[in-house]
Amino acid sequence: MTAQDVEEAVEASATGAPTGRISVASRGHRALIALLLIGNTAVIAVYMGAGILLALQAAQISPNGKVAALGTVTGVAALVATLAQPIVGALSDRGGRRGPWILGGALAGFGLLSVLADLRTVLLLTVGWCAVSAALNAYQVAVSSVIPDRIPEGLRGTASGFVGLGIPLGAFLGPWLAARAAPVSLRTGYLLLGGLVAFAALLLTSLARERRMPGGRSAGLGGQLASLGSALRGRDFRWAFTGRALITLGYFSVSGFQLYIVQDHTVLPANLSPTEAVAVLSPVGAVAMAASTSLGGVLSDRTGRRRPFVTAAAIVSAGAALLPVLSDSWGAMLVFTALNGLGFGCFMAVDLSIVTLVLPSTSDAARDLGVLNMAQAGPQIVSPLIGSLAVSVLGGYTGLFMVAGAVAALGSLAMLPIRGVR
Questions:
Q1: Residue 286, number of CB atoms within 10 A of its CB
Q2: Which ranges carry the Major facilitator superfamily (MFS) profile domain (predicted)?
Q3: Contact yes or no for 381/233 (Cβ under 8 A)
Q4: What is the mean pLDDT of the chain?
Q5: Across the chain, how many H-helices and E-strands are there?
Q6: 120 phi and psi, to 5 degrees?
Q7: CB burial of residue 121 (10 Å; 0-12, 13-18, 19+)
Q8: What integer pLDDT is reported at residue 128 of this predicted model?
Q9: Which segment of 20-29, 180-189, 331-340, 387-396 scores lowest on mean pLDDT?
Q10: DSSP alpha helices (H): ranges in 151-306?
Q11: Are 228 and 94 in contact (CB under 8 A)?
């Protein structure tokens, strides 16, 4: 299929998604899903790859306080992202278009990433990463909103599953690029990651043409901003928010310190450096996550059931956290990474389809998804703090894994009360 074919196919889906129980994807929907997969892969690659670069940079700035420094940088930036997402979502709904936010957020992120390597204090690095996070979250919430805008309800699980493949693909691609660029320079790594998301945004906005959604300016901006929390009044949406927050907290409490874990906790083979170990773990987690993401989304559509998948996925993630507690071996870390990838990938894919089906208002999809994404960005505020406290108070990284497992278990319980989906 040529670029022109893709553009024509996607154009067919530009008028919005019907709400019927459609189960067969049209050519236009398939092309749109492929473009969204590329867009999601790119932004996840930036987050995961930059996590390694930020860890290296924090260690250069503060060798003896690297855990606290990294926690400060990523935690404060997550706060900014949490506040930015629903506001940007409301602005996107008001304008009735996603493209300008996708392209603008990506290009701004690229420009900001290009100067990140020059920042030499924890304060400046925190400010810089906050700016990058705000720009990329504007991009991300707009990309996420295309699913409820233009994908039929009967295809939401399949679409969410395939778009969710961006998580494992990005989780592999980002660290892989960062691990190979870091020996050259941090700047090279940041430029590669920024260029990746800029290219994805150009591809998505040029091929996935959209029409302005009707009623995009029906509510005043002040009214939209004032109603940011209205989505949480919905019972099902509130439980979905809670479950995602807990699962995300458990996942990022560990993944945010992955480089330090393999440095200071895991007994590595003699010929394997910590950065090389991260480069090995990334594809292991990516393959496991890719398998569970795609299968979970498709099977949830075929069975018409969502809750059993997300509950089981959360339980798998919780159980996986016990392995590094019982053993500090390299083998235990590999198995943990695979199981954690299986659980987290399936959860995020099916959870996204659940959310699109329990949105309080389809006309405010971006705003409400921005509120939901606070459940993903918000835990990243506290996960570095929880991680550093667990390491210092609970006796090292063993305590960190115990906390992560307990939080994931609570996340599985939070999905049970949702009534709007089976």
A1: 25
A2: 31-422
A3: no
A4: 79
A5: 17, 0
A6: -115, 10
A7: exposed
A8: 94
A9: 20-29
A10: 156-164, 166-181, 186-207, 221-226, 235-255, 258-264, 274-303
A11: no
| Sign of the dihedral through C-alpha 127, 130, 136, 141 | negative
Q: Do residues 364 and 94 make contact, with C-beta atoms less than 8 angstroms apart?
A: no
Q: Is the pLDDT of residue 213 over 70?
A: no
Burial readout 176-210 (b: 16 or more C-beta within 10 A, e: otherwise): bbbbebbeeebbbbbbbbbbbbbebbebbbebbeb
Q: Which residue has the tokens 């995009």?
A: 216
The dihedral over CA atoms of 375, 154, 358, 339, expressed in degrees to the nearest 10, equals -30
SS3 call for 419: coil
Q: What is d(CA 39, CA 113) in angstroms, rounded to the nearest whole number? A: 18
What would the mean pLDDT of 257-268 be, rounded to a whole number? 86
Distance in angstroms (rounded) separating the CA atoms of residues 49 and 170: 8
What integer pLDDT is reported at residue 127 of this predicted model? 94
Residue 329, beta-bridge partner list: 267
pLDDT of residue 217 exceeding 60? no
pLDDT of residue 295: 79
**DSSP bridge pairs for 267:** 329
In contact, 268 and 252? CB cutoff 8 Å: no
Note the pLDDT tens digit of each residue in 88-118: 777 776 666 788 889 999 999 999 999 998 9
Domains of the chain: 27-214+233-414 (1.20.1250.20)
Amino acid (one-letter) located at 151: I
